[in-house]
Amino acid sequence: MAEQNPDLILAAVQSVIKRLxxxxxxxxxxxxxxxxxxxxxSLMIVSTEGEPLTPLYTWADNQSSFQLEKAKAVQxxxxxxxxxxxxxxxxxxxxxxLWLQADSPELLVGGNRIIGIKEYITxxxxxxxxxxxxxxxxxxxxxxxxxxxxxxxISFLGIEQEVLSDPVDTNxxxxxxxxxxYKEIGLSLExxxxxxxxxxxxxxxxxxxxxxNEVAMTxxxxxxxxxxxxxxxxxxxxxxxxxxxxxxxWVIGGAVNNGGNAFEWFASILSKTEVMNYDEINxxxxxxxxxxxxxxxxxxxxxxxxxxxDASVQAHFIGLSANxxxxxxxxxxxxxxxxxxxxxxxxxxxxxxxAKKLKVNGGFLRSAFWKQMAADIFNKTLTITPQxxxxxxxxxxxxxxxxxxxxxxxxxxEVIPIEENVKAYQKSYELYQKLSIPIQQIHEIKxxxxxx
Length: 452
Description:
By secondary structure, the chain is of the alpha/beta class. It contains 16 helices and 19 strands. The strands form 7 sheets. A 7-stranded mixed beta sheet has the order 13-14-12-11-17-18-19, with helices on both faces. The protein is globular and about 65 Å long.
């Protein structure tokens, strides 16, 4: 389960906007537009009056796993990926609707609406139920060619298209406003609401990584590698996503479940035996050579999205011996997270061509050691821009594309790979790739054992 209370999120959004307006008065009187970035893959059911009938099921919710596996046993669902660009995985609203249809079919009748969190927020502010193409393209219900809900998928799920929000482009300006809601948070009635897009796609825009084959990488709690293309690009094995950003701008890539949260997991274990802060843990890593003296970590602590798309896969340490220390373990954890992201980038480059630039953001930028490790493992120069919250900036830029020229003038920091480290990591990564096959076989054996 990974559920949230949508009304708490709405209250938080209201609070932040109100506080921002109060703190920046009188400049805030000049606010002309409000635009939104939002996480993908969320789903909730609301009544015809817009009242929540379910919690918000987030991208991390895996309750639909059993129902999805059941459906996959009956037929190959690759046709859904080919139409929508959304990988077949419990994260997607497609899978969540399979589950709700089997578990709580009464929720999907009587005019109840199927929406995501951004629709819930913007409906409160405007009274219009609209969904942008970017969020819609991450549902597994949206046809990338027609830019509309796919009738075959809608029929397969046993729902009516009318229960879904009207899809609109990412620069759509809402035609109506809710004056009561505006007054509550202090917005001028002249302020326009722009629908915006999804956080992953907007991160590329905020980092100004929107030219063909420019890559944006984010490592926060989870992680992602995304490349922009001027046409739809799908992976023959369904390992990467393809989502809409703007006209002739498609974001292809892979998101991983395990990023900085893997480091936090290990740090929490250490805190139970030793009192250590993150700087001290980093210091332990720095004493260990690249490759962690043969210790490898496959970082599937929370299942995995790309490149495996398997919610039940588990993490593994391989090559552990009595000679390995705490520093080896934590270094192997972070190296494993990055090896996993390298796999995603390799798939992107195979399908769409070599990456021209690698622009990065996320919490890992706070550590100089991690930045250097990433440059060495990817064997690419990392370009770091001043924008930490690139998705939020992208939401602003969705209607202000001219400002991208200003971004090009901003000072950037580059982290250049260290050649001897690159060689050590390449050798370690080769072993990681070879061992990933038996790791998958172990997973299949365990799954069969559980089922029997």
